[in-house]
Amino acid sequence: MEEKMNRLYGNVLNKLYEGADIENLIVATYLVGAEQDEDPILKAASIGIEQTTGSWADVACETDEIREKYAAKTIGVYEVPDFELKKDLDKTLSEGDMRFFIMRIGFPVINVDDNLPLFFATVTGNIMSMPYLKLLDVDFPKNFVKKFKGPKFGIKGIRDLLGVYDRPLLNNMIKPCTGYSPEVGAELFYDAAVGGVDIVKDDELIGGDRAFNKLEDRVKMNMAAAAKADAVKGEKTLYTVNITDEVSRLKDNALRAIAAGANAIMVDVFGIGLSALRDLAEDPRVNVPILAHCCYGGAQSVGKYQGVSSVVLTKLTRMCGADIILIESPWGKFDNLENKYISRVIACTGDLYDMNTSMPFMGGGVVEGLVPVILDRTGNDCLLGVGAAIHGYPDGPIKGAKAFRQAIDACMNGIDLEEAAKENKELAVALEKWGVYGKDDISKNYLI
């Protein structure tokens, strides 16, 4: 007998989780808005077909055999709230209101393998032109992840390089962000490093060679400043030089920086692309840690009904080899949600098969008075990213860095910051100027 059922409803495209080949499916979770009269089962199947074997109309060679092997599979469709009765739906929604669904759709790994551009074409692709569609998360099977090498160093490797195991690490971004000479930068570098900073980074706005600040000059002068500071403070300093550039120049920048003495590098990951990060990280000649700055990532993630969740982008950045990943603090100058921040930290540090962890790096207006809340939510395996609160400290960056180390020491010893400030004058000045989270309005510090 001829099958009369609409095949978009059939078992070829719609699977129970228990009946799907989960080990060979990349399962994407979407938030999808639909008009009241739209069928969500058909909408999910249509999304899956559009991104795999078919189009808006059946085509002759798209057989059930092809669909079974290569078409996306709907794993689940869940309405929020979870209506069961039509009368409840009719009572709850007014004319013109939309219905919202969580849709889990599995894409065969065989369609993508470890081709990241093709991954984005498949899992986001044309459907991102639809209104009310956001990629919330991706469950990556081991069959997909196994070809990605991930971070070379990770949290343990960074700590091994620095010889610091018992506290969070401290980073400083050189300020001003750009427009300065290598000589000026080296002076700022030394002051931050000798004051107790573990890692000094270029700002995201001064990548590669600039007319006023050449890459190799910057590396040589800053590494000389690091050596000088290390001899004074008895600790090691890493310098993450920003090599961001056109992809055709990126690898050369990395190798030139390392040859000039760089002991770490950084990239603006969403400017160069995840595949370019992966190419750097998986090259054995790039034998130093890589810091990934997340600028431009917000353009993809901040829409509440559109785009790609920052958690997905963080997970992919780790898979592509970033040893350190910048995550904006929700308590500083950016309006990020705390739960999303914590989810991104988990994406850096949670088990991802046997892949190395990435060190979460908190930036965005971090001041001494935020250290307790950051450590409470994040733990000690993190890098505190501080720019203006060191270089804008009233008594100069050396004391600004010392104030942060005093705040860290107080937290590690369970001492209230204001109590610690009674015996640490640098910390006292910082708390007076920037305030303490939970007591003062920290947002007053920021121009944005």
From TrEMBL:
<feature type="domain" description="Ribulose bisphosphate carboxylase large subunit ferrodoxin-like N-terminal">
    <location>
        <begin position="23"/>
        <end position="144"/>
    </location>
</feature>
<dbReference type="GO" id="GO:0000287">
    <property type="term" value="F:magnesium ion binding"/>
</dbReference>
<dbReference type="InterPro" id="IPR036422">
    <property type="entry name" value="RuBisCO_lsu_N_sf"/>
</dbReference>
<dbReference type="InterPro" id="IPR033966">
    <property type="entry name" value="RuBisCO"/>
</dbReference>
<comment type="similarity">
    <text>Belongs to the RuBisCO large chain family.</text>
</comment>
<dbReference type="Pfam" id="PF02788">
    <property type="entry name" value="RuBisCO_large_N"/>
</dbReference>
<dbReference type="InterPro" id="IPR000685">
    <property type="entry name" value="RuBisCO_lsu_C"/>
</dbReference>
<dbReference type="InterPro" id="IPR036376">
    <property type="entry name" value="RuBisCO_lsu_C_sf"/>
</dbReference>
<protein>
    <submittedName>
        <fullName>Ribulose 1,5-bisphosphate carboxylase</fullName>
    </submittedName>
</protein>
<dbReference type="Pfam" id="PF00016">
    <property type="entry name" value="RuBisCO_large"/>
</dbReference>
<feature type="domain" description="Ribulose bisphosphate carboxylase large subunit C-terminal">
    <location>
        <begin position="154"/>
        <end position="434"/>
    </location>
</feature>
<dbReference type="InterPro" id="IPR017443">
    <property type="entry name" value="RuBisCO_lsu_fd_N"/>
</dbReference>
<dbReference type="GO" id="GO:0016984">
    <property type="term" value="F:ribulose-bisphosphate carboxylase activity"/>
</dbReference>
<dbReference type="GO" id="GO:0015977">
    <property type="term" value="P:carbon fixation"/>
</dbReference>
